[in-house]
Amino acid sequence: MNITLMAHDKKKELMVQFCTAYKSILNKHILSATATTGRLVADATGLPITLFLSHNQGGHQQVDARIAYNEIDMVLMFSDPNSIDPWEDQQIVQTLHLCDTHNVPVATNLASAEMLILGLQRGDLDWREVVRRKKTIR
Predict the structure, then answer these.
(1) Residue 85 pLDDT more than 80?
(2) Would you call 105 exposed, middle or buried from its count of C-beta atoms within 10 A (0-12, 13-18, 19+)?
(3) Could you tell me the CATH superfamily of domain 2-133?
(4) What are the b/e assignments for 53-91, b being 16+ CB within 10 Å?
């Protein structure tokens, strides 16, 4: 499964802690992330992570394009609910819209991320493989 990691500046340490705690599950999957988040997680965990551009250089758009092309199966995007940047908020809404449109599971906080990761471990998200294959065949 292709999993993408993203985190607001104030949530990057939480993402590192999350990935450290669930390293044994995450290392069975293909990981990608926006630049700073990915570097921090890779340095702390040793997990191999494909890096997109940083958020302000277009990394968010790279993720969105991959969601639209059905190349991402899960998005863990720890957002800061106290953010006051309207541009950043619009980008988050766009990513959430694409995830909804393409049936990509997405978590924006620790609680929902834990539910997705534990479901992934149990095999609850294996249906994504079927969805990806069907869209590729068309």
Answers:
(1) no
(2) buried
(3) Methylglyoxal synthase-like domain (3.40.50.1380)
(4) eebeeebbebbbebbeebbbbbbbbbbbeeeeeeebeeb
Positive or negative, the CA dihedral 20, 22, 27, 29 is negative
Helices and strands (H, E) in the chain, number of each type: 7, 5
Q: How far apart are CA 73 and CA 4, in angstroms?
A: 8
What are the sequence ranges of the domains in the chain? 2-133
The pair of three-digit structure tokens given for residue 30, joined into one six-digit string = 């293909």
Contact of 120 with 25, CB cutoff 8 Å: yes
Whether the full predicted model's pTM is greater than 0.70, yes or no, is yes
| Token pair of 126 as six digits | 């294996």
